[in-house]
Design goal:
The structure is a homodimer. Chain A is built from twelve helices and seven strands. Chain A is an alpha/beta fold. In chain A, strands 1-7-6-5-2-3-4 form a seven-stranded mixed beta sheet, with helices on both faces. In chain A, strand 5, helix 11 (270-277) and strand 6 form a beta-alpha-beta unit. In chain A, helix 1 (36-51) packs antiparallel against helix 2 (55-70), helix 1 runs parallel beside helix 3 and helix 2 packs antiparallel against helix 3. The first copy, chain A, starts with 35 loop residues before the first helix and ends with a strand. Chains A and B meet through helix 1 and helix 2 of A and helix 1 and helix 2 of B.
């Protein structure tokens, strides 16, 4: 009776990146948890409120998203469901980029902070580790987790990041990153991309490609944010050809897939990239703040912690 | 194409209780806020997890609830939407009372605490106020707000309740309650009903009727809980004939409506009763802990605070 909403995937198994969790030809690594569903409905509501102040459109979009969510294949990875839901919100609200002003504001605030953050990295006894800590601190700017991120929250996260305990294997990552030749750095959010510049600078001796999303979704960074943040002046920036809030290889462009193929280290920022790439058979380091209980359970940690998680290094 | 889910209401306007916010003949006092919708989906997921451990049923119920929520009239009061959603969960899961064991456990834990709480009331300089504070503390046992309430949370709430600042008009309520003749005390949750006994004891010189829900919904108290808690041995207990998680007059029995008619003071516990009775034209005191941001905005307070809110007294 109802259509089942799924993303049309084209084969990526030929690339041999995925070890487990394949569903047909789609890159499913972390299956959706039922707890994600109320969160997606809240995200859709946040998104349509960013898209328009019209309460009639809020009601109509909310109702259509609820029905669509009720017809979805719940075996997909959360960012694939997010991709469908946010496409629907954009289409139904008539706003192709609801988070546009939020993204610009985040970039501008981060650029204000950037000179002092850069000094902190430079004066630090371990500049590389400090840059990693600050790049992860920037991952707090995530409008998928909450519809509002205050400047106070960002400031506090930065301050804490310099001394708080990091989970995972920071030292191992620092050691391996120093040896990498071709690095693919997959960004996450606008604003955060400015923080990523600090780490990109510390990796300046390496060949780096920085990847952003192929189209607007949530406050995820796109080419426009790479330009606003200054990233395009530093390294080669590509987009992945996809509007999923993560890295769905089956939905990615050939240019992006080649970059994955060629990298001897992938640095993947944030939850969406973790959810979609946690099972990839490539040397990878996930740098993120763990903000949701579903991901915390998958990793085996508390929510609210900063994390360096490596695989295949 | 889709049915619009609404509760069939029979006229109550003849009673003349409602001043504003009528929708047809239905007792709509607080309209649903879009923020309630993700919360209802989370509640449905909690409920079906209490109903059965079968993940296939979780998925199927979740999908059907999403579709039903997408077809609902969003002009209804939150407990009317809750009534529809929880009916659906019970029907689809085949479990007529998913919170049965949670309710019994709450009653039993509260009965363990009861002797020491009673002593605290008796030795207090203002026994009536202490009983009100403890009755409101009991309102923390609300599985509509969260799928898990720990004993630690209950213990801490009790401890804090004796000294924390109360919002609203406690003194005015105490003064007016002393003058009331016929009191209708509308309970909220299982477990909490034991705490209500402390206040009912302090009001022993008055004619009191205690009302519970007419059927299982969430962890709301029903006749079974009135029996388990010992309330039936203290005062007349009636049910309201409705399985809404609040007091929907249009869905209530004649016996309950007569009790409303005859009362010269209604004491209404908890959020669901506030959402459905906030506009009633009867002398009423709402005793609750404000646990959700939508109600906090309606009242004009922060979340997490204890509240005595009176009207028409």
């Amino acid at each position: 009776m109802y259509p089942i909403y799924t993303i049309n995937c084209h084969p990526v198994s030929r690339k041999g990146y995925l070890r487990r969790g394949r569903k047909g030809n789609c890159a499913v690594t972390m299956k959706i948890d039922f707890d994600c569903i109320p969160c997606f409905i809240r995200q859709a509501l946040d998104a349509v409120r960013f898209a328009t102040p019209d309460p009639d459109i809020h009601a109509s979009v909310l109702q259509k998203v609820l029905i669509a969510a009720g017809q979805m294949d719940l075996q997909q990875a959360p960012p694939m469901v997010g991709q469908i839901i946010h496409r629907l919100v954009r289409e139904l609200s008539g706003n192709n980029d609801p988070y546009k002003s939020v993204k610009t504001e985040s970039n501008q605030y981060a650029l204000q902070l950037y000179p002092s953050l850069r000094k902190q990295v430079e004066k630090s006894a371990n500049s590389m580790e400090t840059a990693v800590r600050l790049a992860i601190a920037g991952n707090i700017i995530d409008f998928g987790v909450s519809g509002a991120i205050s400047r106070n929250t960002i400031d506090e996260t930065i301050l804490n990041s310099l001394s708080e305990t990091y989970y995972g294997n920071m030292d191992f990552f620092l050691e391996k990153a120093a040896l990498a030749d071709r690095i693919l750095y997959i960004g996450d959010n606008a604003g955060e991309i400015v923080f990523d510049r600090l780490l990109v600078e510390q990796l300046s001796g390496h060949s780096i490609t920085y990847a952003v999303r192929g189209g607007p979704v949530l406050n995820d960074a796109t080419i426009a944010d790479a330009e606003e943040s200054g990233m395009t002046h530093m390294v080669e920036v590509i987009d992945n050809g996809s509007d999923a809030p993560g890295t769905v290889l089956a939905d990615s462009s050939d240019v992006f897939l080649r970059a994955v193929e060629n990298a001897d280290l992938i640095i993947a920022k944030g939850q969406g990239n973790y959810e979609t790439l946690s099972d990839i058979d490539k040397p990878i380091a996930f740098l993120l703040r763990v903000k949701c209980p579903v991901i915390a359970r998958h990793i085996g940690c508390e929510t609210g912690v900063p994390m360096v998680r490596t695989a295949n290094l």
